[in-house]
Amino acid sequence: MAKTLRIGLIGAGGIAQPHMAAWQKCPDTKVVAITDISKKARQTTAESFDVPPDNLFEDYKQMLKKVELDAVDICTPNAVHKPPAIAAFRAGCHVLVEKPVATSARECEQMIEAGQEADRLLMVAQVMRYGRDAQIMKSWVDAGLVGDIYWARATYLRARGVPAWGSFIDNELSGGGPCYDIGVHVTVSAGTYLEIADKPSMMRHNPKKYTVPEDFAVALIRFANGATISLEASWALNVCSRDYTNLLATGTKGGIQRNPLTLVQEQGGMLTTTTPQITPWDEIEPFEEEIAAFAQAIRTGGPSPVPGEQALITQRILDGVYKSGQKGKEVKV
Ligand SMILES: NC(=O)c1ccc[n+]([C@@H]2O[C@H](COP(=O)([O-])OP(=O)(O)OC[C@H]3O[C@@H](n4cnc5c(N)ncnc54)[C@H](O)[C@@H]3O)[C@@H](O)[C@H]2O)c1
Questions:
Q1: 122 alpha-carbon distance from chain centroid
Q2: pLDDT at 182
Q3: What is the domain range of residue 275?
Q4: What is the spatial distance between Cα 125 and Cα 32, in angstroms, rounded to a whole number?
Q5: Per-residue pLDDT tens digits for 232-245
Q6: 46 lines ligand 1 (CB under 6 A)
Q7: Is the pTM higher than 0.85?
Q8: Is 87 in the pocket of ligand 1 (CB under 6 A)?
Q9: Given 64, 108, 156, 276, which residue has the most CB atoms within 10 angstroms?
Q10: Dihedral class, residue 38 (left if φ above 0, else alpha if ψ from -120 to 50, else beta)
């Protein structure tokens, strides 16, 4: 029988709940301790998921000192990712950390360095990679059906979707706005706008608490090989759709799109579209897949399924989006 991996949760708020449910289903793992600065959050989460009341902490340093752990799962606000990650590495733990990995590329580099020094895994919880649609799109690309991708477009537009919970609109805790939360050799030409975040949101946010720098960001990211990505993200925008989320990528042979999930190809001189009906991924639950991949990587000695180095590229691009938006011109990343 495999040794049970002992996990410590840091941050027991919204996203920690599906993480905890996934840990419960992951064989030979157990969340044995929880840290949260909120007593209510740590206690209710512990009760829901059967974590011993003696192992609840207000300070992650105490948890790392008192409880023997193999790994930590960090679900705190973005600005509270780096300090517990580095402390956990120094305590000999592997680290799973929510996205975005940090609030700057520099912070992310420090996390990667600490992981390397401790010889422990850093995995960034980019759960959308474990979604059925993402897996299918990747399989099309891997099968060569799209060819060389030269343009992609990632769109996450909310018309009046300013979040009222969590730390998404608090700049001190999140370090950025919608572009940080829902957007990702390179030059970046971006516009960032803070225009209508004070308008009522469907989620009844408090406009006085809106301190992140933008409510809408748009960027053109140009890679060294000439490929480009268009990125658009908003919490609030005067558009007619309530929520418009899509990802499309076009290549020399075909194109893929997430919403609705489609493969576009030229066949017999005609442009055709393929929409999967039943797929081998129908039954998957993304958080369970993500947690299972982390546990498996710990057992087999890596590599990290979503390494910090990949998140660092995203983070550098996002830093570039803000820099370009502030300067009003194209910047090199
Ligand atoms: N993968 C996804 O789909 C997804 C979705 C939502 C949020 N997130 C990410 O997850 C993270 C948390 O977001 P959330 O929505 O769960 O926020 P949340 O506010 O609901 O929960 C965060 C928790 O961290 C606790 N906390 C704050 N500082 C702490 C500290 N120093 N030590 C211990 N606990 C502390 C808070 O008390 C709170 O309970 C963010 O990085 C966010 O971007 C990811």
A1: 14
A2: 62
A3: 132-146+253-281
A4: 20
A5: 999 999 998 767 88
A6: no
A7: yes
A8: no
A9: 108
A10: beta
